[in-house]
Specification:
The structure holds 2 protein chains of 2 kinds.
Chain A: H1 9-19, E1 22-23, H2 24-36, H3 43-55, E2 59-65, E3 72-77, H4 79-90, H5 102-112, H6 117-141, H7 144-169, H8 171-178
Antiparallel strand pairs in A: 1-3, 2-3
Helix pairs in contact in A: 1-3, 1-4, 2-3, 5-6, 6-7
Chain B: E1 6-15, E2 18-28, E3 33-37, H1 44-51, E4 59-64, E5 67-68, H2 74-84, E6 85-88, H3 100-110, H4 115-128, H5 144-156, E7 162-166, H6 174-191, E8 194-199, H7 202-205, E9 210-215, E10 218-221
Parallel strand pairs in B: 3-8, 3-9, 6-7, 7-8
Antiparallel strand pairs in B: 1-2, 1-4, 4-5, 9-10
Helix pairs in contact in B: 3-4, 3-5, 4-5, 5-6
The chains are: A mainly alpha, B alpha/beta.
Chain lengths: 180, 226
């Protein structure tokens, strides 16, 4: 499960660099430890992101150390980088409105075409519950970070299930409305 | 396939004008955790009460380990509930005058186990449920989460074949609810007990092996499409 969106990898790297300058390898290691979980960040993405931050003046190369292979660069955050990460942390994330529901569309189409909408909702419910069971098992065997990540997903799935239940309870009403 | 531990078929039950169950069915195998999901008034608690021999259905068949619960005498049903079933309810339902240790030991005392042996086993279950610190306290002196863990210990102390849990986390916050569910399902799996878990919360149901939904008194098994 990737928990850091592509768009915020840059700020995450800046946050990791704020405590201390690091080599690219060290940034990857720390990132994977805290946020990578089932999907570690690729080396290519690490260096592409650092290049972007470098071009933007948000990080700088503090030292270049010769090694057996290519030279190792140590990256440090700049003042502009500290400001950028501080602004990102302080800015609330936009709550997802979830207004474009594929499920709602399927339910309405099922009703319009005379299919079993309740059946469709039950199949979806079973799929949600299966995933919730998997996450609950994963949570049971995981450390605190894993537990919190799984909880986040579980609460969202539970919200979906409440909607499925409510919609099931209102199917007759919805059917009368869409067939009008 | 081996015979199910508990099987119910064609259950019908009404209370006055209200029909609570219509052709409800459920089967549970040894050691299985089955969640019964449904909204308020769906009939899920009535189903649990029928399965546990608390309420007799108007029609239908309930067989536990080869014994027919519907035609069984009241005395035999009471004995079965005491010896083979364990119960956890939403609000613990502990005896307020007894200490938590005495509450857990109570089912054993009713089964004529000597006090000392009963309290020793009760103490072990309190430890298992991570709640030894409340052994000498009365239910009114402990938190909701602690009280519910005491209730789970009491349900397990006789090593029942089936545990009936009716909204066991309904009065708890998320963190305490999770702890109760983790301890309840782990202990049940270790002892081989089956669990019938009635809940309206999907996160609680996720601790089960499979789910059955009750809607307007009818049961429906949820199966994931292949």
């Amino acid at each position: 499960m990737c928990i850091v969106l592509r768009m915020s990898i840059g700020q995450t790297f800046l946050g990791l660099l704020e405590a201390t300058p690091r080599h690219g390898y060290d940034i990857k290691r720390r990132y994977d430890e805290h946020f990578g979980h089932a999907r570690p960040v690729a080396y290519g993405q690490v260096y592409a992101t650092l290049s972007r931050l470098l071009r933007g003046g948000l990080v700088e190369v503090e030292a270049v150390e010769p090694g057996e292979g290519p030279d190792r660069k140590r990256y440090a955050i700049t003042e502009a980088g500290v400001t950028d990460v501080a602004q990102w942390l302080a800015r609330p994330e936009q709550p997802e409105p979830y207004l474009q529901s594929v499920l709602y569309t399927k339910v309405v189409l099922a009703l319009l075409t005379g299919r079993q909408a309740a059946e469709l909702l039950d199949v979806q419910r079973a799929e949600h519950l299966r995933l919730m069971r998997d996450l609950t098992r994963r949570k049971r065997d995981g450390d605190l970070a894993e537990q919190l990540i799984c909880d986040h997903a579980l609460f969202h799935l539970e919200a979906d299930l409440r909607w499925l239940e409510l919609t099931t309870a209102r199917l007759d009403e919805l059917a009368a409305q869409v067939r009008r | 396939m081996s015979a199910p531990l508990l099987v119910a078929e064609g259950l019908y039950r009404r209370f006055g004008e209200t029909v609570a169950l219509v052709d409800a069915a459920l089967r549970i195998d040894e050691g299985e955790v089955v969640a019964v999901l449904g909204s308020s008034g769906s009939g899920k608690s009535t189903l649990l009460h029928c399965l546990a021999g608390i309420v007799r259905p108007d029609r239908g068949r309930i067989v536990f380990d080869g014994q027919d619960l519907v035609t069984m005498s009241d005395a035999r049903r009471s004995a079965l509930r005491r010896d083979a079933f364990g119960f956890v309810f939403q609000f613990g339902q502990l005896v307020p005058e007894l200490t938590c240790l005495e509450n857990v030991a109570l089912p054993l005392r009713l089964a004529r186990v000597p006090r000392r042996a009963a309290e020793q086993r009760a103490g072990q279950w309190l430890e298992r449920l991570e709640v030894t610190e409340v052994a000498g306290k009365r239910p009114g002196e402990v938190s909701g989460g602690q009280g519910q863990r005491v209730a789970v210990a009491r349900a397990l102390v006789t090593r029942p074949r089936v545990i009936f849990a009716d909204e066991p986390t309904g009065a708890l916050d998320s963190l305490n609810g999770e702890r109760v569910m983790r301890l309840l399902t782990e202990a049940a799996r270790d002892t081989g007990a089956a669990v019938v878990l009635v809940t309206h919360e999907a996160r609680v149901a996720a601790y089960s092996d499979r789910e059955v939904v009750v809607r307007d008194g009818r049961t429906r098994n949820l199966e994931v499409a292949a």
